[in-house]
Amino acid sequence: MNASTFKQDLMASFVVFLVALPLCMGIAIASGVPVAAGLITGIVGGLVVGFIAGCPLQVSGPAAGLTVIILDLVREFGLESLGVAVLMAGLLQGAAGLLRLGQWFRAVSPAVVRGMLAGIGVLIIGSQLHVMVDDKPKGNGIENLVTIPQAVAKSFAWPSVQSQESRRFRRDMLQEVGELHRRQQDLEERVAEIYPHVHNPELEYTETQRTADAADLEALAVVQQAIQDDLESATAKLQRLDEHFATPQRAARAAAAADAAVEQNHAALAAFSGGDPAAILTEQDASVAAIQKLLVSLKNHHFAAWVGVLSILSIIGWQFVPKSLKLIPGPLVAVCVGTLIAAAFALPVLYVEIPDRLWEGVHLPSWAVVHETGIAALLKSAILIAVVASAETLLCATAVDQLHNGVRTNYDRELFAQGVGNTVCGVLGVLPMTGVIVRSSANIQAGGQTRASAILHGVWLLLFVAVFGFLLRQIPTACLAAILVYTGFKLVNINDIRKLANYGKSEVLIYFATVITIVAEDLLTGVLVGIALAAFKLLYTFSHLEAHLRTDADNERICRLQLHGAATFIRLPMLAAELEKVPPGCELHVDFQDLRYIDHACLELMMTWAKQHENTGGRLVIDWESLHARFSPVGQSPRSAEAAPR
């Protein structure tokens, strides 16, 4: 690598880093996991996958396409199951790469792929519009979509503007309680890792294990006591400064929520003394919920909605700035705009929750989780992650190859590299990764020449989080959700429908069937429905034949047989029936103009029928040169065509 190339890679790596930073955080929030899980995945994508990728200019990291899968996984089995599922998915991808199956992951109908991305986009929009107004997503995709009008209504409502001092007080309290909420969630997860047998009675919990866990339990009780002390301190502030709320009723609700959180947290602390694992986990879960209610009493949906709307407008408006400024990515501009507005007006909205040390977000996978959840359930999620991540990565790699004239993609190596990256992510218990077209195209447009740009972007992510992590806590979550809403709209690309329509209505039908099933059911069911319809279309295409026999208007002794579709052995009876309708002594002309395929069985039927028809004084006329031109192997010599029977 010469100095000029390195300089280009260095500049490109900064651009990719600026694109990746908000997306890593936003995708983590959309997936229902801590922000640190998304940032660590982005770092692994650069520092691990970047060195061994089969597509050097492709940039890997957490992708919007996997948010739906991960959100469902975490909701159903808990955050502790994430690492195991991602680890298994990584091993599957690595094995597929070693077995040279890279090209097979690309063998999916474009209608299914586009439908899958659009379905994911619809689900992202439905869930993140609620996050954008500081609400929680609903239970499923349909509920999220049905309740969108409520979220939109909050965007148009004019917020009650209090004094700067009051807004600053509520903002500070939100950030303080938000950090307590993060710490309590982390504590609950670590307790669940110690006591997996609580949710799985089949696991034996021996006295030896109980003794071994006692030391860990004592250490966690100390953490719970620290949370209790900080929560009581925060509650004292709320009791003293109730004048900072818009109405006495809101102040009373906040004070009551604070008292309930303190009381519940005290019960969680007392549970540690009792030593009953089931009671500890129950009280921990209730404590997280109580602090969440306290957060709800402090935040303002209207302010969050306006932050989100302004963030989306910033991304859209940035598309019209001079080309020289477009090296700064739109999502970063949105983050800066949202953060500056929130800081300038001290807005009481939810902010990013991130630990002081990034590696506190690491949750090592445990074999006990497999026993608790069940290998079948985890394997199902792992296969889905592996298939979707592989398909998205390799499709992205194909798109990247079209954007530059450098080294082409080695699909098997790229698949293996993704497997290694996801195996590492699984060991760390963070989000899975794919090759991401947004970051990859930004890399190429910024002048990236080698894999060094992808590697360096991971370095900048690591350094920024390690040194300037405190800045991330100033970012409103509504701002990151707005970026994901915009990303969702980009995934639902209307141009894809127009392009598919050029290949027939059946492609559009497959597209919409995939989208609707994904939204109504789940991602796996939607993809399987799409694949099944594509397979049915293929079977129909190669088994459907239309045959129209007509008599020439000028000469009754001449008949014409027009074939449309595919003449295969499956349709042999129908073709034979049409030939039997030809009057004796008639000259039959066969039109192959609309025929896509004809197999040996149908040709042999025609030859056999022609011999019999000649006995009646008739004749079969076939343009063999035209037939060979349409169906013979490319490059066949003219002599071989002439040698064909006439």
Automatic annotation (TrEMBL):
<feature type="transmembrane region" description="Helical">
    <location>
        <begin position="509"/>
        <end position="540"/>
    </location>
</feature>
<feature type="domain" description="SLC26A/SulP transporter">
    <location>
        <begin position="282"/>
        <end position="514"/>
    </location>
</feature>
<feature type="transmembrane region" description="Helical">
    <location>
        <begin position="111"/>
        <end position="133"/>
    </location>
</feature>
<feature type="transmembrane region" description="Helical">
    <location>
        <begin position="36"/>
        <end position="57"/>
    </location>
</feature>
<feature type="transmembrane region" description="Helical">
    <location>
        <begin position="415"/>
        <end position="438"/>
    </location>
</feature>
<keyword id="KW-1133">Transmembrane helix</keyword>
<dbReference type="InterPro" id="IPR036513">
    <property type="entry name" value="STAS_dom_sf"/>
</dbReference>
<keyword id="KW-0472">Membrane</keyword>
<feature type="transmembrane region" description="Helical">
    <location>
        <begin position="459"/>
        <end position="489"/>
    </location>
</feature>
<feature type="transmembrane region" description="Helical">
    <location>
        <begin position="327"/>
        <end position="352"/>
    </location>
</feature>
<dbReference type="InterPro" id="IPR001902">
    <property type="entry name" value="SLC26A/SulP_fam"/>
</dbReference>
<feature type="domain" description="SLC26A/SulP transporter">
    <location>
        <begin position="6"/>
        <end position="155"/>
    </location>
</feature>
<feature type="transmembrane region" description="Helical">
    <location>
        <begin position="373"/>
        <end position="395"/>
    </location>
</feature>
<dbReference type="Pfam" id="PF00916">
    <property type="entry name" value="Sulfate_transp"/>
</dbReference>
<dbReference type="InterPro" id="IPR011547">
    <property type="entry name" value="SLC26A/SulP_dom"/>
</dbReference>
<dbReference type="Pfam" id="PF13466">
    <property type="entry name" value="STAS_2"/>
</dbReference>
<dbReference type="InterPro" id="IPR058548">
    <property type="entry name" value="MlaB-like_STAS"/>
</dbReference>
<feature type="transmembrane region" description="Helical">
    <location>
        <begin position="77"/>
        <end position="99"/>
    </location>
</feature>
<dbReference type="GO" id="GO:0055085">
    <property type="term" value="P:transmembrane transport"/>
</dbReference>
<dbReference type="GO" id="GO:0016020">
    <property type="term" value="C:membrane"/>
</dbReference>
<feature type="domain" description="MlaB-like STAS">
    <location>
        <begin position="561"/>
        <end position="622"/>
    </location>
</feature>
<feature type="transmembrane region" description="Helical">
    <location>
        <begin position="303"/>
        <end position="321"/>
    </location>
</feature>
<keyword id="KW-0812">Transmembrane</keyword>
<protein>
    <submittedName>
        <fullName>Putative sulfate transporter</fullName>
    </submittedName>
</protein>
